[in-house]
Write a structure and sequence with these properties.
The structure holds two protein chains of two kinds. Chain A is mainly alpha-helical. Chain A has a single domain (2-91), classed as Orthogonal Bundle (Helix Hairpins). Chain A is 80% helix and 0% strand. The termini of chain A are far apart. Chain B has two domains: 1-92, Four Helix Bundle (Hemerythrin (Met), subunit A); 136-180. In chain B, 70% of the residues lie in helices and 0% in strands. Chain B has helices spanning 2-5, 8-30, 34-54, 58-83, 96-117, 144-151, 155-176. In chain B, helix 2 (8-30) packs antiparallel against helix 3 (34-54) and helix 3 runs antiparallel to helix 4 (58-83). The longest helix of chain B has 26 residues, at 58-83. The N and C termini of chain B lie far apart (63 Å). Classes of the chains: A mainly alpha, B mainly alpha. Chains A and B meet through helix 1, helix 2 and helix 3 of A and helix 2, helix 3, helix 4, helix 5 and helix 6 of B.
Chain lengths: 97, 180
């Protein structure tokens, strides 16, 4: 089942990348990033069946980083929404020349 | 173990949850409403938890349900509710050029990763001393093989994780506070 796990993981990661590239809603882009992190977690767990439980330790770390990233990122989104009344990335282009 | 591993029952459920996860992910990236997208993503996360259990990582499966589906997605839904973005009527998917670029990048990435996935894996790599290859058969149940490397080899990383969480808490409070 290792090859199947890696296949599902690759497909989920690609869907996440395509989501980040095609969507403009900042919250949905964040959720796509979470999907990519989960795809990598699936790879870690699948390979931990072959190489020992260390991969599962890394999954715990990835989940912690994902939780921290979600908290800070959503706080930034709320902060931007207060200024711009929008989470559409087309409206948030102040740094664009 | 090998007998059970190769059984039809196991394979059927593995493919079932994998295909449900992929289909839910496709539906997730195509929804207009952030609430619908978040609920489809929760479906993906539950299917991944089932895959973790099928891959003998029961603890990770439980953590997946508790932390991801239970905590992180609730934060997402809470922010959607707070900003009142639930009824998105305008499609936020980019135009044709963006879609073609994304499709091209996606196909390229998928081809690359599938080539990598078919590569041969080395049978032996250098493992830390306490990582048990038999995850389930250890004397400490299914938790000990995860806990031992976590609190021995990766103790520094574990402590740094606590610093990261503290920084994230402070940062979220500072950023989310209403100024003035």
């Amino acid at each position: 089942m290792l090859a199947e796990s890696l296949f599902f993981s690759a497909v989920l990661f690609t869907i996440g990348v395509v989501g980040v590239l095609t969507r403009r809603n900042a919250i949905i882009i964040f959720m796509c990033v979470e999907l990519m992190l989960n795809a990598v977690n699936l790879t870690f767990v699948a390979l931990s069946k072959l190489y020992g439980a260390t991969g599962q330790v890394f999954v715990v770390f990835v989940m912690t980083v994902a939780a921290a990233e979600a908290a800070v990122g959503l706080a930034i989104i709320i902060s931007i929404f207060r200024h711009r009344q929008s989470v559409n990335l087309e409206d948030i282009n102040l740094l664009k020349g | 173990m090998t007998n059970e591993f190769n059984s039809l029952f196991y394979g059927f459920h593995f493919y079932l949850f994998g295909i449900i996860a992929v289909v839910s992910a496709i539906v997730f990236v195509t929804r207009k409403s952030p609430v619908a997208a978040a609920l489809w993503l929760v479906n993906v996360l539950f299917c991944l938890a089932a895959l973790y259990v099928l891959l003998d990582a029961q603890f990770i499966g439980a953590i997946q349900v508790l932390v991801y589906a239970g905590a992180i997605m609730v934060v997402f839904l809470f922010v959607v509710m707070l900003l009142n973005l639930g009824d998105a009527t305008v499609v936020d998917i980019r135009g044709n050029a963006g879609r073609i670029a994304a499709g091209f990048v996606g196909a390229l990435l998928l081809a690359e990763v599938s080539v990598l996935a078919r590569a041969r894996f080395p049978g032996q790599i250098e493992l830390p001393a306490s990582s048990g290859a038999e995850v389930v058969q250890g004397p400490g149940g299914i938790i000990a093989p995860i806990a031992e490397p976590l609190f021995r080899e990766y103790l520094l990383a574990f402590e740094l994780t606590s610093m990261l969480l503290l920084t994230a808490i402070v940062g979220a409070v500072v950023l989310g506070r209403k100024r003035g």
